[in-house]
Amino acid sequence: MASESGTVIVVEDDPHIADLIELYLRRDGHRVIQASSGEAALEAAGRERPRLVILDIGLPGQLDGFEVCRRLRAASDVPVLMVTARDDEIDRVLGLELGADDYVTKPFSPRELAARVKAILRRTDGPPPVRPTVLAVGTVEIDAGRREVRVDGRAVSLATREFDLLQFLAENVGLVLSRQQLLDGVWGPDWYGDERTVDVHVRQLRKKLGEALPLTTVWGVGYRLE
Predict the structure, then answer these.
(1) CB 84 within 8 A of CB 54
(2) pLDDT over 90 for what percent of the chain?
């Protein structure tokens, strides 16, 4: 059973926390590889081709979690669940900007972390829904098949969750969507987290796409793509 659900790399320098995470992941059928530094994490990721990486931000040595996430994302699309010791929005925003799929804040419930792992893998491994190949909103083109976004024909790089959010908004163009509706549609109904996560990703979309993105904030409700 230990390898039925694939390999997860746990990057955590506290052996007690790493062992606890491993215990719960093994119960769910995962093979677990522990790494206590950024260098060891990158080496293991290149060797093992994991299904998911759980990555602590505060690592010893030259490479912190942010730099490890940046290098992982440059080399692959492996899902990354970041762990931060502080409930600091700056940490969360930076992690999401670097392409992390989700985050948890210490101290966390191992059961909650395991549930988030399941949710991420279910979203990334599930069969893709039937959707139009290319959606166009103004001068923004969303190519679902290639998972590419173009503005006036110029490719714009988006993180995985940013792309999913933009695509969901485009599929519901003209509708006002609450933050909870966006969380359910993009992150999944079993996702645990703060509704502010939506705002973080919206800010990133506006930053990257600029005035080409006709996205309106409906105060007290949510967002609408015109």
Answers:
(1) no
(2) 43
